[in-house]
Write a structure and sequence with these properties.
231 residues; 11 helices
Length: 231
């Protein structure tokens, strides 16, 4: 683990080991709040902030925490950062905070965060733990944003509706709207969340399969080999 390059950490967090599409962790908030792009982005950024803060803190204290109490200590660290972020969102993004509701404090129980703290940050140095938390958080946020955008577009015929809740009044003009499109209610209901996530997983698997096939072709037929065999 210590020899893992920063590039591998980033690609694993964003794609190869994306916690939402591969490990299938954190599905409760992922499916519950991803009915719009802004809701997904808000929860994703909050989760990313907790991931980065908790990973770096766990990495700093890892040599001072006895193995018998490491999990309660990690949960306490995570809960402290979640509380601070929830209070900040309530102060500066009050309307968005009300919409996300219970799912902000429930970040404490997100398996992604405790999993990265236990499996990676508690065994790795500060810089790698920080990069891991940031890449995993961004990967999770991108899935939330994409799924939320898909469901909002199909369900309401809009994209980035209520962007002002996060970016201020000047962002009201960011909303994209499909005129005369009534929307499909199922997309913003719980079944739509499962259908959308399934489609994202399918697309990822198809891309991985295509990339693996191209890599195999390059191994079987390295560049210049055909010309060398037939002068």
């Amino acid at each position: 683990m210590a020899d893992t390059s920063y590039r591998e950490l980033i690609t694993d967090g964003l794609w190869h080991n994306n916690q939402a599409l591969v490990a299938l962790l954190g599905l409760c908030p992922l499916l519950a709040v991803s009915n719009t792009a802004i809701n997904g982005l808000g929860l994703g950024l909050a989760t990313t902030a907790v991931l980065v803060a908790s990973n770096t803190t766990v990495s700093l204290i890892r040599n001072y925490v006895r193995p018998e109490v490491r999990l309660p200590v990690f949960v306490l660290v995570i809960a402290s950062f979640v509380t601070a972020i929830e209070m900040g969102m309530n102060a500066y993004f009050h309307e968005l905070h009300k919409i996300l509701g219970i799912f902000i404090p429930l970040i404490v129980t997100n398996c992604i965060i405790i999993g990265r703290a236990e499996a990676f940050a508690s065994k790795t140095g500060l810089s790698r733990s920080l990069v891991d938390g940031l890449s995993v958080g961004i990967g999770f946020t991108l899935v939330l944003l994409t799924l939320g955008g898909m469901r909002e577009l199909v369900g309401q015929g809009t994209l980035f509706d209520q962007a002002h809740l996060m970016f201020g009044e000047a962002a009201r003009g960011l909303t994209l709207r499909i005129e005369a499109f009534p929307g499909m209610l199922i997309a913003i209901l719980p079944p739509g969340a499962f259908i959308g996530l399934g489609l994202l997983i399918m697309v990822k698997n198809l891309i991985d399969k295509r990339l693996a096939a191209r890599a195999a072709e390059r191994i079987d037929y390295p560049e210049g080999a055909e010309g060398a065999a037939n002068p």
